[in-house]
Write a structure and sequence with these properties.
There is one protein chain. This protein has a 6-stranded mixed sheet. Strands 16-17-18-15-19 form a 5-stranded antiparallel sheet. Strands 1-12-11-10 form a 4-stranded mixed sheet. It is α+β, with helices and mostly antiparallel strands. The protein has 3 domains: 239 residues, FAD/NAD(P)-binding domain, CATH 3.50.50; 94 residues, Alpha-Beta Plaits; 83 residues, Glutaredoxin. The chain contains 10 helices and 27 strands. The longest helix is centred in the last third of the chain and has 22 residues. The protein is globular, with a radius of gyration of 23 Å. It starts with a strand and ends in a 10-residue tail after the last strand. Strand 6 and strand 7 form a beta hairpin. The protein binds flavin-adenine dinucleotide (FAD). It holds the Pfam family FAD_binding_3. Keywords: FAD, Flavoprotein, Monooxygenase, Oxidoreductase. One of its GO terms (molecular function) is monooxygenase activity. This is FAD-dependent monooxygenase.
Length: 473
């Protein structure tokens, strides 16, 4: 048995684990990342980064790497396959960045390697124990002693199961399939390049849906189809080429010729949320903590933002600068966000009509969704832009909201966050109040009645007084 010692062990090198590892490494925390698979599969479930995730990556100077690997920008999202514009939001990134999940992982792992952290591949966490001082994690050939363990090991999380945490939610009845298909020519009605969410997916009014999203090569598409009322006996059974070809012929006609089916996978529509995100020295993040039907393209985005929230708090705890209770705010802040996503996914599922009544409801909902306020509300839900964290009644309304990435003399506010520290924005010359706080003097702040604001490393407003003691010990 090999023996290793570190500060944090992360199980899982998906988007969540890799983002968390980056955040910890940036803060100077020693981290070991374990990945069960010997190499990346090259297959992508997710295809997008939502606006808030683009902002979050920009806060760390990581967005450029994602942009280089992206194949389109789409100026809207969708709610139950009804397009919702991002234009009403005060953001520099009012679009979905089209990027395969595997490329998000590659970008994050590239930055991680630059921080001298290597992913240990072919190393599945098989068991762990914890005591008052730390955790001991075991793989097939290695034992690692650490202060903390983060389970970022996906929906079937070994870490969550070992903790015995309930994983309950809404039982789905249906299933979906995704398949990457290359056609001989652009299929009828499909976009040749991904430019909009309009007519991407259609429903038949009895619970079934089918859609085509153009990918990065000519005539290569992500085919998605499903039935929200029926699921096969074995959800993990292989999706045959015959099944995929049959759906294509029925939906797009005999003349739509398939040249290649690269891969296909089936998934369920259950929603589950871990009863707790923390048990002692062990945390859950990403799909290990929450899973749901991929409506609206939100899961990977949730995971990256979980990692951002946990990263700076865990680093502060390890470095001895976290005030009492700060680490518990990870669950207090992020679990309600996942709960809200699970609710919006449930609403989206209901709007895939399974009865004539629901079809009528969808028609009215679609008309109402055109109203500017409805567009703003729905796009806020799926984009992550409407996420706020709790504030007290006496606090300024900006408290707990995201800092808009406003223009500064040198560029944009996001650049101040590249080191992952707190930033004190002030209109007056101000001494550094704490070694972990960057001071940025500006002519004016985004709120007319605020002259000082302490911003957290994840870009949310801590307070509008500049007080640091309750945030940094
Ligand atoms: C069909 C489909 C389409 C989707 N589309 C979108 C979309 O468009 N947009 C979006 O935002 N989300 C989408 N999602 C959701 C998204 O793919 C997930 O939310 C995302 O992968 C979660 O990332 P994660 O890092 O938390 O978990 P995962 O990506 O599951 O990564 C977990 C990692 O942990 C590893 N692992 C597992 N067990 C162990 C162990 N014991 N030890 C060590 N390593 C382990 C796994 O090999 C894996 O690499 C989609 C999901 C599906 C099923």
């Amino acid at each position: 048995m090999n023996e290793l010692t570190t500060e944090v062990v992360i199980a899982g090198a998906g988007p969540t684990g890799l983002m968390l590892a980056n955040e910890l490494a940036l803060a100077g925390v020693d981290v070991v990342v374990l990945e069960r698979l010997p190499e990346r599969t090259g297959l992508s479930k997710a295809l997008n980064l939502q606006p808030r995730t683009a902002e979050v990556l920009d806060l760390r100077g990581l967005l450029g790497r994602a942009e280089e690997r992206s194949f389109a920008t789409v100026p809207e999202g969708h709610f139950a396959m009804i397009p919702v514009s991002y234009a009403s939001w005060n953001t520099r990134h009012p679009y979905q960045l089209a990027i395969p999940q595997v490329q998000v992982e590659a970008a994050l792992e590239e930055r991680l390697a630059e921080q001298d952290v290597e992913v240990l591949r072919g190393q599945a966490l098989t068991a762990f124990t914890q005591d008052a001082d730390g955790v001991t994690v075991t793989t097939s050939d290695t034992r690692i002693r650490a202060s903390y363990l983060a389970g970022c090991d996906g929906g079937r999380s070994t870490v969550r199961k070992a903790l015995g945490l309930p994983f309950e939610g809404i039982d789905g009845r249906g299933h979906g399939v995704v398949a990457d298909v290359r056609f001989a020519a652009t299929p009828p009605g499909a976009q040749s390049e991904w430019r909009s969410m309009r007519n991407i997916v259609t429903t038949d009014g009895i619970g079934k849906y089918t859609g085509l999203i153009p990918l990065s090569e000519p005539n290569l598409y992500r085919l998605a189809y499903g039935d929200r009322l029926n699921r096969p006996a074995n959800l993990r059974a292989e999706v045959t080429d015959e099944e995929v070809r049959d759906v294509i012929t029925k939906t797009y006609g005999e003349e739509t010729k398939v040249e290649e089916i690269r891969w296909a996978s089936r998934f369920g529509d259950d929603s589950r949320l871990a009863a707790s995100y923390r048990a002692g020295r062990v945390f859950l993040a990403g799909d290990a903590a929450h899973t749901h039907f991929p409506a609206g393209g939100q899961g990977l985005n949730l995971g990256i933002q979980d990692a951002m929230n946990l990263g700076w708090k865990l680093a502060a705890q390890i470095k001895g600068r976290a005030p009492q209770g700060q680490l518990d705010t990870y669950e207090q802040e992020r679990r309600p966000v996942a709960e809200a996503v699970i609710q919006n996914v449930a609403a989206q599922s209901a709007l895939i009509p399974a009865t004539p009544e629901l079809l009528a409801l969808r028609t009215i909902f679609r008309a109402l969704s055109e109203l500017p306020e409805a567009q703003h509300h729905l796009s806020g839900l799926v984009s992550g832009l409407s996420i706020t964290y709790p504030r007290k009644d006496k606090d300024h309304p900006a408290t707990g909201t995201r800092l808009p990435d406003f223009k500064t003399k040198e560029g944009h506010a996001s650049t101040w966050f590249h080191k992952g520290k707190f930033v004190l924005l002030t209109t007056q010359p101000t001494e550094k109040p704490h070694p972990e706080v960057e001071v940025a003097q500006v002519d004016e702040l985004p709120w007319h009645d605020v002259t000082r604001a302490l911003i957290r490393p994840d870009g949310y407003v801590a307070n509008t007084t500049g007080e640091t003691k309750s945030w940094l010990a």
